[in-house]
Amino acid sequence: MLHSVPSIAEPDEAALPFLKWAGGKRWLTEELCQLIGPINGRYIEPFLGGGAVFFALKPAQAQLSDVNTELINTYRAIQAQYRAVERHLITHQLLHSKEYYYQIRADKPTGMAKRAARFIYLNRTCWNGLYRVNLSGAFNVPIGTKNTVISADDDFEKLSQILGCAQISANDFEHSIESAGFGDVIFCDPPYTVRHNNNGFIKYNEDLFLWRDQIRLRDCLVRAKERGSRIFVTNADHDSIRELYSEHFHILDCERFSPIGGQHAKRGKYSELLICSHL
Known about the structure:
Elements: E1 2-4, H1 29-36, E2 43-45, H2 52-57, E3 62-66, H3 69-95, H4 98-106, H5 112-125, H6 156-163, E4 166-170, H7 173-177, E5 185-188, H8 211-226, E6 230-236, H9 239-245, E7 250-258, E8 268-276
Parallel strand pairs: 1-7, 2-3, 2-5, 3-4, 5-6
Antiparallel strand pairs: 6-8, 7-8
């Protein structure tokens, strides 16, 4: 079933997350919040990324996860040790320079708060907020043009309070989705791999999200739907994705602008799919 999503307004600034994330869904939060509506059970997000939808919804109960262990450590640190994270970020702001950036990029700190502050520092000062690692798992994005490590809008205490409702874990999506039951809401924003893996986003993943993972995700979501969970998925606008989900879900078309891209010609508007179990 194909539908069109109406024009989408920018979400309220207060709902925006603290990380910049390639492929993030800030632009879609208003429409998603309207579609999702009241949540009677838990909110489950197994591809957490920047968490734009979670921070916009502010659910009473949440299960948040991602395979990126440094990302998950950062959320846990904000949840439990936000004051320590903030202190380390102040130090990064005072010392920030090109030389310092590459020093921190090469560093491997221990301790939850130090690791989280490094992650946020690199996210805010690297090129375009991109997260990319090499085959050894080392972050390798060059320095960007922005020098602001701590923004006047930052409110880590508020972020900690919002995250207080959540169980946060580093694991494969299947682990989280299989725990979903009646009344739970699942939102998935997986890497946009399509059949034949002909998609630029996968080159940024240490462990590639392959087409068989897309099939495994679909199968998990079908089972969750049968258990009474409500499903919302964003994915690439590609015939293989439409075919994958068309039997069990509604498919909506939406359009966005992407500022991420190594070549200016690759930037611009492009379409995505919003896949729902209920409308």
